[in-house]
Amino acid sequence: MKLLAIGAAALVSLIGSTAVAQTQGVANPGPVIPGVCVYFNQRLLSQSTVGQSVQARMAQLAQEVQVELQPYGPTIESEIQRLRGLGDAAPEADVQALQARISEARQLEQTRENELRYTRSEQIRLITEAVDPILLALYQERGCGILIDRTSVFIMNPAMDITDAAIERLNTQLPSLSFNRLAVPVQAAQ
């Protein structure tokens, strides 16, 4: 699970750097089209201070979950080896207890994974709530007639990109978030 979190963070960073590289690699990016603005949400999430604080905290929470789940592996493996050694003479009660322990470990792992996903989605929701008025203000200030998602644009004139301004304002307004792992509400779990 830790590897998954690190991989996701690396992917977000890679996406952000690829988009910047695509624009910087063009000698003549073309004219600025009046009223057309572009915004790259993934870059805001990976480069803003609040986005970085969420990534760092999520990595800590994932590590805490790993530490919590770690004891299950060796004890289950040890019990499997013991029961294999007994072969057909293994007591049925011991086999059932092992199955219950495996089921308990899987259930706990699934619960923690759901909590981490929910926690991350809630932090992204809070960032989105903070950035929405910033985007609206930038849209109006820049005289945008349309705001296009950067993931839909291959190459553009960087002067049409409002992402840097959004990051700057978000860094001032919401520098970080403090949070712990959240339990998934019953209605969300279903």
Main attributes?
single chain; mainly alpha; disordered N terminus; elongated
Question: Can you put this structure into words, describing what you see?
Answer:
Helices cover 69% and strands 4% of the residues. The protein has 190 residues and is mainly α. The protein has a two-stranded parallel sheet with strand order 1-2. Helix 2 (41-47) packs across helix 6 (163-173) and helix 3 packs antiparallel against helix 5. It is elongated and about 80 Å long. The relative contact order is 0.20.
Produce a short descriptive summary.
The protein contains seven helices and two strands, in the order H-E-H-H-H-H-E-H-H. It is mainly alpha-helical and 190 residues long. A two-stranded parallel ribbon has the order 1-2.
Ordered list of secondary-structure elements with their pairings:
Layout: H1 2-24, E1 36-39, H2 41-47, H3 49-69, H4 72-86, H5 92-141, E2 146-149, H6 163-173, H7 186-189
Parallel strand pairs: 1-2
Helix pairs in contact: 1-2, 1-3, 2-3, 2-6, 3-5, 4-5, 5-6
